[in-house]
Amino acid sequence: MAEMTKNEILLPAGGMDLQTTLFCGQSFSWEATPDDAFIGVAKRHCVKMRQKENAILIAKLDGSPFSAKEEDFWRHYLALDFDYPALLQKFSKNKRLQACVQAGPGIRVLHQPFFDTLLSFIISQNNHIARITGIVNRLKAEFGEPVGGGQYAFPTPQVLAALKPEDLAGLRAGFRAKYLIDAAQKVASGEVDEAELRCLTDEEARKKLTCIYGVGAKVADCVLLFALERNCIAPMDVWMKRAMASVFPKGMPAVAKGYEGIAQQYIFHWARQNL
DNA sequence: GACCAGGCGTCTT
DNA sequence: AAGACGCATGGT
Fold first, then answer.
1. Packing angle, helices A114-123 and A129-143, rounded to 10
2. What is the tens place of the pLDDT at every residue in A263-273?
3. What global pTM score does this model have?
4. A260-274 and A237-247 are packed helices; what angle lies between their axes, rounded to 10 degrees?
């Protein structure tokens, strides 16, 4: 019996680097601890993760054991159930793709919860990472359920849908407050439904998402890529055209500092078009 | 004090 | 279809 319960799980990392993956701009749900670990919440489970060479050590903050299902959840969240090295191997011929890989060889595209991702990337528009993280943290602390360890889950669509923009003043999200509420209302009403989105084509899903006030092509594509698992098929045309000038300034082959995450997403964009 | 930030909606051409 | 502009806020 005792050998069946695991208070910690150790997942082979397959070359993944936790630090760069969590802080490259695809997720705003993690915080680094002084002892070089990372604390975050997904699916109302609060965990502390740590890199142990080529493996990831994960423990729940409440110390309770992992079920097999939970172990699978985190393996999938971290994209450790995907043969990433094999994918990256395919890019060695293309100079730009190679530069993207070299800029962040340990970056993995995560599989994040749908509503959390939608809220996060609405907040991200015309914004920068430090402030996005602050707004996300305040949103969780003020309207999300506490999950122990001083951590909070993202608010539910139902809770957020009942609020007015002025109720979100404390978040200092500015004009984005009304967008967050419209997103929550459309999800709560079922007008935007995760299961349905997963059945639609990329174009249909994108069109559905952009019905939400404040959700355009960029935010929709981030939700498609980071939450709806269109890993190798995410369209990011609009965004990529704009972002490439930043990723490769003056046509330089090397990826600009701070854009390693976008570069990694460019790989997936390219993979969708060409593989 | 400008200027900017991993957009979007709206109003012009 | 494509371009200009305002938007709220906080970091640099």
1. 130
2. 877 777 677 66
3. 0.93
4. 130
C-alpha A224/C-alpha A21 separation (Å) is: 18
A68 touches strand C (CB under 7 A): no
DSSP string, A86-99: HHHHTTTTSHHHHH
pLDDT in tens, A114-173: 999 999 999 999 999 999 999 999 999 999 999 988 899 999 999 999 999 999 999 999
CA of A50 to C1' of B11 (A): 51
Is the distance between the Cβ of A10 and the closest atom of strand C smaller than 7 Å? no
Which phi and psi angles does A16 have, rounded to 5°? Answer: -70, 140
A11, A55 in Cβ contact below 8 A?
yes
Alpha carbon distances (Å) from A161 to A14, A167, A174, A180? 40, 11, 17, 9
CA dist., res. A13 & res. A75, Å (int):
9
User: Rounded mean pLDDT of chain A?
Assistant: 89
A183 touches strand B (CB under 7 A): no
